[in-house]
Specification:
Strand order of the largest sheet: 3-2-1-4-5-7-6-8-11
Radius of gyration: 30 Å
Number of helices: 22
Helix content: 40-55%
Number of strands: 14
């Protein structure tokens, strides 16, 4: 997370010496990532390789397969192993049989490693290397890279792998950023989420968890942990957990944990909506950048059934099927730890839709109402446009917590950081801007200061709620007389003239009618039976600044100057 850059010269060396012209630029990561993982695993397993081989030869075929795994784990002193006689260096000693031996080598890994390699689709990569006569060259080149723990610590390996992922994503013109969040966005989110936690996380006896429900390649998780260790100098034990639906992204995230000494079983594959892989687990910190505007139509039956359960994740309501962002938010809220056990802080990136989409009574409005009335929404931060690889739209950070400090209770802080950026020297797809280190510090300062100013607004929770009331006007007969309802004796409403008013919850409805409606429509009356309560966060409205229009004299002067300019051009044309 700091500005240190790991040495990854080997990536460019192997690309130029082995892969160039055979693999496209955007395919280099498909080759390099699994081979870097294999080399790191070799280096970690090397000290106990002989012990694993001996244990395998002693117990293979003599104990049940489910018993053999733990025996080999103990021999390897790791959560993974390889019982084959090969590693990449040994493979590089026999060019004639490299393909056959490579298969034996891969088949010797423990099931958790094979799961990763399967999701990398390594067999397809190897098939292309074999077809082009490059497998031996690739094995030989990667086997020379020193990734032993003595050369590259687990901490530094996290940087190496994160840098490899970043470069692989930036080189891909087709899918850059689809599963990758820019590092400065992660750092800003982490800075806000952990800004209040430094003292707590300094406790070496503390265990805290971080979770990402759509973890992509795992950057949000690993960089958040690095932020705690490097920026906060935190000493608490941090365990990270993630779930990912995309197979290759899942493989990258899981292998990242494996090669940096984390528990790879904490990264799980599947759809968080329909297959929660951590059903009984609560987490202290949750950071996520799930996809925007993704349809959940295929999961509609399952989710509608769960929404009927008052104790389910989606009891507050369901958004429209074309956009599942509020499903992600509700899922994260369901994972909040009890405040008595440390509570939770949540940071999630969204587009503008969850702030205001949906009328009063809609699923989106009801979810906003549920979140705000439970006092979970701590802050919303508006980010600059064009900071993501795959979209140029404005995005927002939602900061949620069930352990608000006293001064924040019953309030929501809005921060306008849309101008907090510097232009990039070279665009990367849609990414033309980045948030600098000083700007990250400034936005974090605005958040922690919790004071109103030009870029900060603080409102009570009820400010975002409104009554949506039906305003009626009576029918008039041919003679202009008010038509009365025969049953009630009251004026009969003219449906063609029906209108709606959104009245703030803090207002008296009758007083509002007299002040805002009656002066314009004297015979208006309300149908209070149809009143609904809605919630929205109209970010742009709150930060709108009135621009004084130019004076008529100034406009006149501009028009005269334009006329003179046009006359001059016409004169030149006619003279020619």
């Amino acid at each position: 997370m700091a500005d240190q850059r790991p040495n990854i010269d080997f990536l460019f060396r192997i690309t130029n010496d082995v892969l160039w012209n055979t693999f496209k630029k955007n395919e280099i990561g498909d080759v390099m990532l699994p081979f870097v993982v294999l080399r790191r695993l070799d280096c970690i397993l090397e000290p106990n390789k002989a012990a694993v081989r001996a244990a395998y030869e002693q117990f293979d075929g003599k104990v049940a397969p489910d018993k053999l795994g733990p025996i080999l784990e103990r021999a390897a002193e790791q959560k993974f192993w390889n019982h084959s006689p090969y590693d990449l260096r040994k493979l590089a000693e026999d060019s004639a049989n490299v393909e056959l031996n490579f298969r034996h080598y891969i088949n010797g890994f423990s099931p958790n490693v094979q799961d990763i390699l399967d999701n990398y689709q390594l067999d397809k990569v190897v098939a292309r290397l074999v077809k082009n006569g490059l497998l031996y060259q690739m094995v030989q080149a990667i086997s020379k890279v020193d990734l032993h723990l003595s050369a590259v610590s687990n901490h530094d390996m996290g940087y190496v792998f994160e840098e490899l992922i970043r470069i692989a994503n930036e080189q891909s013109n087709e899918t850059a950023g689809e599963h990758f969040t820019p590092r400065e966005v992660i750092k800003l989110l982490a800075s806000i989420i952990f800004s209040t936690e430094a003292e707590e996380l300094s406790n070496a006896n503390l265990i805290r968890t971080i979770y990402d429900l759509a973890c992509g390649t795992g950057g949000m998780l690993t960089q958040s942990k690095l932020f705690i260790q490097d920026e906060l100098k935190g000493r608490a034990q941090i365990d990270i957990y993630g779930q990912e639906i995309n197979e290759q992204s899942y493989a990258i995230a899981k292998s990242d944990l494996l090669i940096t000494g984390e528990d790879p079983n904490n990264i799980r594959h599947g759809n968080s909506f329909t297959e929660d892989r951590f059903p009984d687990k609560k987490f202290n910190y949750m950071l996520a950048n799930p996809p925007y505007g993704v349809s959940w139509k295929r999961d509609e039956l399952y989710l509608k059934h769960e929404a009927l359960n008052p104790d389910g994740r989606f009891a507050a309501g369901l958004p429209r099927t074309s956009d599942g962002q509020f499903l992600f938010i509700q899922h994260l809220i369901s994972k909040m730890a009890d405040p008595a056990h440390g509570g939770s802080r949540v940071g999630i990136v969204t587009n503008g839709s969850p702030l205001f989409t949906g009328d009063a009574g809609s699923g989106e409005s009801e979810i906003r109402r549920w979140i705000i009335q439970n006092d979970w929404l701590e802050a919303v931060v508006a980010l600059p446009s064009e900071i993501f690889f795959n979209t140029g739209i404005y995005t927002y950070l939602w900061i949620l917590s069930n352990k608000k400090p006293e001064q924040r209770r019953g309030k929501v802080q809005l921060i306008d950081a849309r101008e907090q950026y510097v232009p990039m020297q070279k665009s990367l797809n849609n990414k033309r801007k980045k948030i600098s280190e000083s700007q990250i510090r400034e936005v974090t300062r605005l958040y922690t200061a919790f004071e109103e100013g030009p870029l900060v607004k603080i409102f009570p929770n009820d400010f975002f709620g409104f009554y949506q009331v039906v305003v009626e006007q009576p029918e008039r007969d041919a003679q202009g007389r008010v038509v009365l309802d025969k049953k009630t004796g009251r004026p009969k409403p003219d449906k063609k003239k029906r209108d709606y008013e959104n009245i703030p919850l803090t207002e008296n409805i009758a007083e509002y009618l007299e002040r805002e409606v009656k002066p314009h429509v004297p015979d208006a009356f309300l149908d209070l039976a149809q009143t609904r309560i809605g919630y929205e966060i109209n970010f742009t409205k709150y930060f709108y600044q009135y621009q004084q229009p130019e004076s008529s004299q100034a406009l006149k002067q501009q028009i005269l100057e334009l006329e003179r300019s046009i006359d001059g051009l016409l004169h030149e044309i006619l003279a020619d």
